[in-house]
Amino acid sequence: GAMTGFPSPCGACKFLRRKCVNGCVFAPHFCHEQGAAHFAAIHKVFGASNVSKLLTGLPSIDRREAAATISYEAQARLHDPVYGCVAHIFALQQQVVNLQARLESLKAQAKVMAYQKGEARMPRPAELCPAV
Amino acid sequence: GAMTGFPSPCGACKFLRRKCVNGCVFAPHFCHEQGAAHFAAIHKVFGASNVSKLLTGLPSIDRREAAATISYEAQARLHDPVYGCVAHIFALQQQVVNLQARLESLKAQAKVMAYQKGEARMPRPAELCPAV
């Protein structure tokens, strides 16, 4: 650590076995311990140099989110080499389709109940819940 | 083309300005014309060598989907350097939350109609309008 005169490298530089210089673009986002494991995935999938260029090209305020999403994409790709995080997109798209189908089915049921009651149509949410 | 004795390189090799050898791992997935543009994004985000390793490590039956999802991730990252395709995941997650809320609200309305049809107690407003 800094007390000994030999500062610990960040997780990225630890993984890359290089000196962690002042202002290292990875240091704020990859801590010495867990950061090295996260960075290993990033390096394997994207390459350290590509990610360094990408982060350097962003305003520093955006780098934390960029590092987090890149780390997520890298881990997803190692976990599922064929689909990566796109598997998550497919699953969510399917969930949306299922929810929309349930919503349509419930709307149809509500219409039936309205007819059974003698109404021509189902009241709109605005009619049931007037704005206050 | 093959007729002239100078086969066109695939889109990846065209972009990388290298000879497209027989059995090139990119050739089935990157055509000569549009493939070069798609590969440019892939090379910038992932690096040709990382993607080559990834595809080579997969059974050939899985490579088409892997190339397509990698191409999608690369283009999403160029379009949105901070969130990449994770922006799509966030948007879908929000859509799921909204649909679930509409579903709950519709279920509550259906309950009201059931009560109006035959039961004594009216639901309280909190049951009619769940927080959205």
Automatic annotation (TrEMBL), chains A, B:
Pfam families: LOB. Residues 8-110 form the LOB domain. One of its GO terms (biological process) is positive regulation of DNA-templated transcription. GO terms for cellular component: nucleus. Belongs to the LOB domain-containing protein family. This is LOB domain-containing protein. It comes from Aegilops tauschii subsp. strangulata.
